[in-house]
Specification:
Layout: E1 3-9, E2 15-22, H1 25-29, E3 36-40, E4 55-58, E5 69-72, E6 81-82, E7 89-90, H2 100-104, E8 108-111, H3 113-118, E9 124-127
Length: 131
């Protein structure tokens, strides 16, 4: 039997718990009186596999579709938007690619919302862990 995965939602549709049940256990266990549970899928159906703190969005016209049925993480920054046809957040400008030397030095880019708000051509800041 295949496992099935369920997310428990609070009154704001925020995931508070995720459980895994063997297919036959659903009838035997039940999912709690007064609780709202939504099935989640490892394969990306419903946008993302549910995680604690994510929001379940249903019947909202967004992301290039007439109606959503997804789990999505919290919006990371005010300027970011959700991708059309995806359940992922994207920065308003693309992240620059690291050079081979930067990768070897374990550098990475981090988003700086204040820099973007001051100049909408900027936002990605190079982080050097050795500095």
């Amino acid at each position: 039997m295949a496992n099935q995965y369920f997310a428990e939602l609070n009154i704001n549709n925020v995931v508070t718990n995720v459980i895994v049940l063997a297919e036959g256990d659903i009838v035997n266990v039940g999912l709690g009186v007064g609780s709202q549970w939504v099935e989640t899928f490892i394969d990306g159906k419903r946008g993302n596999y549910a995680g604690i703190g994510m929001t379940y969005t249903q019947n909202v016209a967004t992301m290039g579709v007439a109606s959503t049925d997804i789990f999505i993480s919290t919006k990371p920054f005010v300027s970011w938007s959700v991708g059309v046809g995806t359940a992922r957040w994207y920065a308003p400008i693309s992240c620059p690619a690291l050079t081979a030397d930067q990768e070897a030095a374990h550098m990475s880019y981090h988003w700086d919302e204040s820099a973007y708000q001051a100049d909408n051509t900027k936002g990605w800041v190079l982080f050097d862990p050795s500095a």
